[in-house]
Amino acid sequence: MTRASDDADRLERPHWWCEGRRRVLREVLRRQLLPRTGRRILDVECGGGGMFPVLAEFGVVEAVEAREEARAAARHPTLKVAPCRLPDELPQGRWDLITAFDVLAHVDDPIAALRAMRARLVFDGQVVVTTPAFPELWGRHDERHHHRRRYRRLELVSHLAAAGLRVTWVSYFDALLLPALAGARLLERLVPDRAPAEPSTPPAALNRVLTEVFSSERLALGLTRLPLGASLVAVAQRG
């Protein structure tokens, strides 16, 4: 599996998208994880470790990551990130929860990767995955980050089921980002030679406002599933 070098820091930068996304995923975990004490968590392809603080609220975190530069960036006082390439190099052991945030979009065989994760779960263990959504939104951002695919809901559910996992909850999210992303993709098609703008963190005050707006989706996800969004999140269980 290959990922862009700057992808390691995607969820670590103090950017409204990164922090808003963390807040949304924290709410999903809070509502969808089975009650359990002493939960063991494995974060697969953890990048620069941006989700470690959130995951640590739910159990003891371990992590694996293929890229050396990302492992070096994933600094944590008590957590060592082990080298690993999917699907064949997951460490031996059993975990209550395995997370794969924006991983399936990068692997050549997502079903094989999910089967490998299932094999490392305890009997009723859970997997939480996120993916970019809608092939129609494919653009130069996907190419720059070495994506292989963008998912529709039914395709993600099908891949999880084919791996022997029972999907218990799935929803689109990043709904507020969807119109802007669709507009950007349309502009790419209309002006194919236009260089895409590199993402940057806005001024602090604006960044805080955008974080609050973007993370407000967590309130909706606490009550319902969103029918549209630029991303998908699914929770599945080994039975």
List keywords for this structure.
239 residues; alpha/beta; disordered N terminus
Structure overview:
With 239 residues, the chain is α/β, with parallel strands linked by helices. It has helices at 16-32, 52-55, 68-73, 110-119, 140-144, 153-162, 178-190, 204-215, 217-221; strands at residues 40-44, 60-65, 81-83, 95-101, 121-132, 166-173, 231-237. Helix 1 (16-32) packs parallel to helix 8 (204-215). The protein is globular and about 50 Å long.
Task: Tell me briefly what this model is.
With 239 residues, the protein is of the alpha/beta class. It has helices spanning 16-32, 52-55, 68-73, 110-119, 140-144, 153-162, 178-190, 204-215, 217-221, and strands spanning 40-44, 60-65, 81-83, 95-101, 121-132, 166-173, 231-237.
Number of strands: 7
N-to-C order of helices and strands: HEHEHEEHEHHEHHHE
Give me the side-by-side strand order of the main sheet: 3-2-1-4-5-7-6
Question: Gyration radius, to the nearest Å?
Answer: 17 Å
How much of the sequence lies in strands comes to 15-25%
Helix count, per DSSP?
Answer: 9
Largest sheet: 7 strands, mixed
**What class do helices, strands and sheet pairing give?**
alpha/beta
Sum up the overall morphology in one term: globular
Average pLDDT metric: 88
Extract low-pLDDT stretches: 1-11
Percent helix range: 25-40%
Distance between the termini: 28 Å
